[in-house]
Design a protein that fits this description.
heterodimer, A: alpha/beta, Rossmann fold, 5-stranded parallel β-sheet, 7 strands, 10% strand, globular, B: alpha/beta, 7-stranded mixed β-sheet, 5-stranded mixed β-sheet, 12 helices, 14 strands, 36% helix
Chain lengths: 322, 335
């Protein structure tokens, strides 16, 4: 497959943005400025971006509690995201959602979801809308390895298969469901074989390899837009940090993350191939790095300084009318 | 004016609303039926009680969508479709099945608008069947609407006759919030006058089904019919009973209930739910908090007992409140 350099630069920008954003969040959690829980996406950047490069604003994604990366990959702006994570006025959800419930329907982002396995039924609803309205849209649910054990996920796969919905199940196998390893918590050898059992195309890829995710997604999106029904992709990429930021990670052997950083950093792998094979200039990537760092710090400063929701906001937005 | 039963009034409303708005779709188990069967019959079901009969013939299977038996996926899919351009009417065949899809109602659909900062409309209707009296046993006979009244973000509708069923369902489908529409399974064949044309009935507006001055009965769903019977019977004894049918419990027309109790000074709250945290409890609490000085006697709650619904017909007859229990309660508040 050939890759358009403009697409590759855009993909790099989104992956780097996720990394920079999440490392900034990590720093800020440690400094104590962030309210509530945050769940960081470092190590998994190539999955969100490999998927979302194929999606327009009119396509929908359902997300997880680990949703910052999905939001950025789908095009949500830093300021809206950071205002929301800081629960401030003007956030994507006016401060009422926070890190685990961020949504931006204008960007086709159906919400991070703090119920494990909560999003796939909603995402198949977006796929149903596309099918009924006949607009060639597709929907995708990001689903963790932990969520892959939930009944809602099985129900959603079966429904999508029966109705031939334009739907993609993007499994992010990041090695751990909270504090338990996938080797124990999953009764089957992998997610791919389970998904295949629901009668859909099902492939497993290296989730740290942008190109592998992008290619698998290309096939899945083509099938969906052609009315050929749902697909499953299991992308394997260990998370670098804890379940939530602050997790002591006693379940991990020492050096595990150092090894991941050394051998399978999605950004390093991307840059090596993009520069060697597709003529991407490393200097240009460094400019992107610098630009993003500045944008995120600026947005962070705005978020920190922004006003909190006013007390009356507690009572608004429950109903459209009541 | 033509006389129609509740089943036909609901069927007619679904058709009228689907003609009115292409975005309205019907989703559920065997709302058409027959897919994958050996007979090749085009509409093998039309809904368990025939409520969705004829919809597929007029609107096609693209908008009348059969699903597997998979309630979480049905309700979640309807919610997701409501966020993305459709106005789904999903069928949860029996409200008892809410146990297997409650997350999608409680944590997803009910909260979308609020947790997205007001930036989402969620025009989804969940039609569901409630109630004891049909011999359907512990897992197909509950009322349970009290549990939904507790959840912010959901509206809960309980029609007690065909006229209200038609107007309230039209309102529900045109509403931009999630609505649970509770149909009593023993009332589908109850008839009254129903206009041919489309009309809406606003939520949160109670109906006074009997006017009276001595006692207020607040009753819901099938209990309204029984309360009316009691009011008519006691009238011949010179006891003047007012019957209030809230029609929706979220929003609840507290003003109508309080105004009636301030007039009569006596309250009987009748509700098919189990007693603790029932709607009858909520109404009694409302009156105690807001109108206690008007009360001439302690209010009485008439509910089902704190038990599951038994299968044995003789036991089931003892389960939900009947006219005799309501009449006894009226006599009790009269002292």
């Amino acid at each position: 497959m050939s890759y358009d350099p403009i697409m590759l630069l855009d993909a790099y920008r989104r992956m780097r943005a996720i990394r920079e954003f999440e490392e900034t969040m990590r720093r800020e959690v440690q400094a104590g400025t962030v309210p509530g829980f945050v769940h960081l996406y470092c190590g998994e950047e190539a999955i969100a971006v490999g998927a979302c490069m194929h999606l327009a604003d009119t396509d929908y994604i359902g997300s997880t509690h680990r949703g910052h990366g999905h939001c950025i990959a789908k095009g949500c702006d830093f300021e809206g995201l950071l205002l929301e994570i800081y629960c401030k006025q003007g956030g994507l959800c006016n401060g009422k959602g926070g890190s685990m419930h961020m949504a931006d329907l204008r960007k086709g982002m159906l919400g991070a979801n703090a119920i494990v396995g909560g999003a796939p039924p909603i995402a198949i609803g977006a796929a149903l809308s596309a099918q009924v309205l006949g607009n060639k849209g597709v929907a995708l649910a990001f689903i963790g390895d932990g969520a892959s054990n939930q009944g809602t996920v099985f129900e959603s796969m079966n429904m999508a298969s029966c109705l031939k919905l334009p739907m993609i199940f993007m499994y992010e196998n990041n090695g751990y469901a909270e504090f338990s390893g996938v080797k124990w918590h999953m009764g089957s050898a992998d997610i791919t074989s389970r998904a295949a059992g629901f009668g859909m195309s099902s492939v497993k890829v290296d989730g740290t390899d942008f190109f592998a995710v992008y290619d698998a997604m290309n096939d899945a999106v083509t099938r969906a837009r052609n009315g050929e029904g749902p697909s499953s992709i299991e992308a394997v990429a260990m998370r670098w940090y804890g379940h939530f930021e602050g997790d002591m990670q006693k379940y991990r052997k020492s050096g595990e993350v150092d090894e991941l950083r050394r051998t399978s950093d999605p950004l390093v792998k991307f840059e090596a191939r993009a520069t060697a094979e597709f003529g991407i200039d490393a200097d240009e990537l460094r400019e992107i790095d610098e630009e993003l760092r500045e944008m995120i710090e600026d947005a962070l400063a705005i978020a920190k300084a922004a006003p909190k929701p006013t007390p009356d906001a507690l009572y608004t937005d429950v109903y459209a009318s009541y | 004016m033509p006389v129609k039963n509740i089943r036909d009034a609901i069927n007619e409303t679904l058709k009228l609303e689907m003609r009115r708005d292409d975005r309205v779709v019907v989703i559920g188990e065997d709302v058409v039926g027959g897919l994958g069967g050996s007979s090749g019959v085009e509409e093998a079901a039309g809904g368990t009680f025939g409520i969705t009969t004829g919809l597929a013939a007029e609107f096609g299977r693209r908008r009348v969508i059969d699903t597997p038996i998979t309630e979480s996926a049905i309700i979640g899919m309807a919610g997701g479709a409501a966020l993305t351009g459709l106005r789904p009417v999903a069928e949860l065949m029996f409200i008892d099945f809410i146990g297997v899809c409650f997350d999608q109602i409680l944590n997803q659909i009910a909260k979308f608008r609020y947790m997205f900062g007001g930036r989402a409309d969620v025009p989804v209707v969940i039609r569901t069947m409630i109630g004891a009296g049909a011999g359907t046993g512990p897992q197909h006979s509950q009322a349970l609407y009290n549990m939904l009244m507790h959840v912010p973000g959901i509206k809960v509708v309980l029609p007690s006759n065909a006229y209200d069923a038609k107007g309230l369902l039209a309102t529900a489908i045109r509403d931009n919030d999630p609505v649970v529409f509770c149909e009593h399974k023993c009332m589908y064949l109850e008839t009254c006058e129903v206009p041919e044309e489309s009309y809406t009935i606003p939520f949160g507006v109670a109906k006074v089904t009997r006017e009276g001055t001595d006692v207020t009965i607040v009753a819901l769903s099938r209990m309204v019919m029984l309360a009316n019977q009691v009011a008519d019977k006691l009238k011949s004894e010179g006891i003047s009973v007012e019957v209030i049918d809230p029609r929706t419990i979220s929003p609840l027309d507290t003003g109508a209930i309080l105004a009636s109790v301030r007039k009569t000074g006596r309250l009987v709250a009748v509700d098919e739910c189990n007693p603790y945290c029932s709607v009858a409890s909520e109404i009694t609490s409302l009156v105690a908090c807001e109108a206690i000085s008007s009360l001439k006697s302690a209010p009485v709650k008439v509910t089902s007992p704190h038990t599951p619904v038994p299968a044995a017909p003789n036991l089931e007859q003892l389960y939900a409140p009947d006219a005799a229990a309501i009449e006894a309660a009226v006599r009790r508040v009269l002292g």
